[in-house]
Write a structure and sequence with these properties.
The protein is mainly alpha-helical. The chain is built from six helices and two strands. The longest helix has 22 residues, at about 85-110.
Length: about 120
């Protein structure tokens, strides 16, 4: 995100984050909790939801036009907690998985202007 802001300005970076938030919010249910947790990172809590449902929701969000046409890049990390005592460890695991997904996306992309500018990956 820093490279994107440096290349195109903070206003453009803010618009990218807003777009990512719209994409994420539109893929999830109204009862799900979508929160920006810092910079270009968001957390989504899906209460009483099976992992398979979370995966399907992520798949749906990754096929939305903004992601499919390269306007915004999003990486997800899915982890499940059975109760609130597991939330801290679950958030850590999902964060690790998200960073792994982000790295895989970068390796699979041909180098282009978005890579040179840093790109945004909420």
């Amino acid at each position: 995100m820093k490279g994107f802001n440096d290349a195109l300005g903070h206003a453009a970076g803010d618009e990218l984050i807003k777009m990512a938030a719209r994409v994420i919010r539109s893929a999830f249910r109204t009862k799900d909790i979508v929160s920006r947790i810092g910079g270009d990172e968001f957390a989504v809590i899906l209460p009483q939801t099976a992992t398979s449902v979370a995966r399907e929701t992520v798949r749906r969000s990754m096929s939305c036009p903004e992601v499919a046409n390269g306007q915004v890049s999003i990486a997800f990390g899915i982890a499940t907690a059975k109760d609130r005592d597991q939330l801290r460890d679950t958030l850590k695991l999902s964060d690790e998985r998200m960073y792994r997904e982000k790295s895989e996306q970068k390796r699979s992309q041909p180098e282009g202007p978005e890579d040179q500018g840093g790109g945004g990956t909420p």
